[in-house]
Amino acid sequence: MDVRLENAVLGWDLENCDSVRVFPSDAVGEGFCITEGAGYPAWRDMSDTERMARMLLGAWRLVVNDRVPVDKVHTALMVIPEFRALLDEDFFDRALK
Question: Which of 17, 27, 38, 73 is least enclosed, having the fewest CB within 10 Å?
């Protein structure tokens, strides 16, 4: 299921690093102690470029500060079409091999 960037919430739980996912802002994100994205009122006033930068900074924080495995964060972000569009075309060929 795709989740558009404008509606995307990245949620994670520091107690369970396997619990990282992106869900729509109108879905219930129970079980997540920290979120980034469309759950914040300022998100609505941001451009797509600003939203992506904020989402990627949140993802960076997960990996660097909270020690969430990068592959878990990457998998979560892949449901956002705007994130997939940032990747090189050959990324998908390499990932499938």
Answer: 27
Q: Which domain holds residue 32?
A: 5-96
Q: Is residue 83 exposed (0-12), middle (13-18) or buried (19+ Cβ within 10 Å)?
A: buried
**Contact by Cβ (8 Å): 6, 80:** no
Digit-coded pLDDT (tens) for 13-26: 766 656 677 877 77
Tokens of 19: 């619990």
Per-state percent for the chain, helix, strand, coil, to nearest 5:
50, 20, 30
Q: How long, in residues, is the chain?
A: 97
Do the beta carbons of residue 71 and residue 95 sit within 8 Å?
Answer: no
**Buried b / exposed e across 4-43, counting CB within 10 Å, b at 16+?**
ebebbbbbbeeeeeebbbbbbbeeeeeebeebbbbeeeeb
Number of structural domains (the chain) is 1
- What's the one-letter identity of residue 84? R
In the numeric block, the tokens 């558009």 are attached to 4
